Every structure is written in C-alpha cells, then in structure tokens.
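Feature request disguised as a bug: please show the residue count (282) next to Phosphotransferase in the output. Example input:
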Amino acid sequence: MNQSPAETALSRAMIRWSLTKSTPVAETPRSWIFRVEQNGRNFAALKILKPGASEEEGRGARLLQWYEGDGAATVFDLHGDTIFMEWLDGGTLGEPARNGHDDEATAALCTVVANLHRHRADPPPGLQPLRERFQPLFDTDVRAWPHTARDLYARAAGIALKLFDKPTPEVPLHGDLHHDNILSSDRGWLAIDPKGLYGDPHYEVANAFRNPAGAGKLMSDPRRIRSMADAFSARLGLERKRILGFAAAHAGLSVCWDLEAGNPITGDLAVLPNLLSAYDLA
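Example output, currently without the count:
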C-alpha cells in the first residue's frame, strides 16, 4: 500500500532520530503534528510541513532553532520539511487573559519578548523583511473594505508608511506573537510558531492587542489598549507611540488578509478605531 506524504516523512523521521512511538496530535493547513517518544520515556514533537508551506514555516523553524530554547520551544533538529522539537503540553497564555488575569498575561508576554530579543550573533538567513510582510496592506484596493471603514484603512496604511519612513535598528522577529502562540512549561512561558521576520522590534507586540481569540470585548477596551502599551513600553524599553502605531497598522493588515481569504473582519474593525485613537493620543 502506498504511503501518504505525511506517513513517509513520519517513517523516515522515526528512523532518523531513533523514535519509538508516534501519536497524531493535529493537522493544520500547513502541517501535520505528532507526539513521539524517545526510548519509551521522553516525549517530543514532530512537525511535518505540507507541500507549499515550507518557505514561511521553514523560516520560522530556523528562527526557532536560533533561539536555542530561550523564550521559545527548543528545536532539536531540522531535516527537510520535518522539525524535531520539544513537546509542550501546557495551556496557552490565552487562558489567563480570557479568565480575568490579563495584566498577568501581559507581564508574561513582556518576559517572552525580552528573551526572544536578547542579543545573539548571526541571525538565521532568509528572514522576511517586515516591510515586505506589510505589502498586502499597501497593495489592497480600498474599495475591498466596507464603505464605512475605508477611512480606517487609509489611517492604518498611512501610519504604516510613516513608521517605515522612519526606521529603527532592526532585529529578528517572531512575527506572530500572540497569547495562544505562547505555551506554559516547566521552563516558563515559551513561544511557538514564529513567522521568521526581520525588522522593527516595536512590531513584535502588535498582534497581542488583537488577542487572545474569543476575547473581543477585552480587545476593544480602550483601557486595556492603554495598559498594554504602558506595560510594553516600560518593560521592554520601547517607544509607546510606535508600539500603538504598529498595533493599528497590523490590525489593518489583518483585515486585508481576511478580506482576501474571505474571512470575517468584524473583530479587527471593532479594535482598530480604538487603536487609532490611542495612537493619536500617545
């Protein structure tokens, strides 16, 4: 019987890394994920990338490996489209944020960012420039946005252009850092699934303002936006207005992505006006 691509990659990985047992955990649009055992004792994870996902996911995997477990899940080895890495089975940082402990979640997020942005030599090659990541925002036809929200698009795109016109020193960026991409472990909170970007460090916290998933009322609360901006600025040494600028620009970018994919945009449209107001007042 012919094996599927996932089965073939899994069989090869089991042999390559002397693994003894595998259990399917999840299938995403970009990968298959298995929990595996080493010598019947220690758990690890195998992430097998699907065809067409290797460019972005490969960038992220190389960045994750570069972090060497400091603020992120440890990558033990990479081979082709298979990532052999630390198994994390704790809850996500989204859980405390959704359950009345958002300030504590923000503090934990600050710690993760500080660890990820710690100086390390020789960033991995092939990271995507942040300006390139934002190209869909600049290329989108404003008529794709609802008529009543087109002023929001213009503001978000204008802020993004202003930010890129005044660059700051650039660093490797996780690029998709939000509450549900941070898992608890016996080593503390650890990031997973980076996008592998390179650019302004103020962007790293942008996605946190429109997360965690399922907490729409919390995300659109102006007091929460101000509180998060205060915490990120104070704890990470970042410029408050620039943080809020990237948060608003990223929300606009997310709307463009969702419009192209045919996904709902109501969540970002509820958050974006308040992000813009906070940016204006900063």
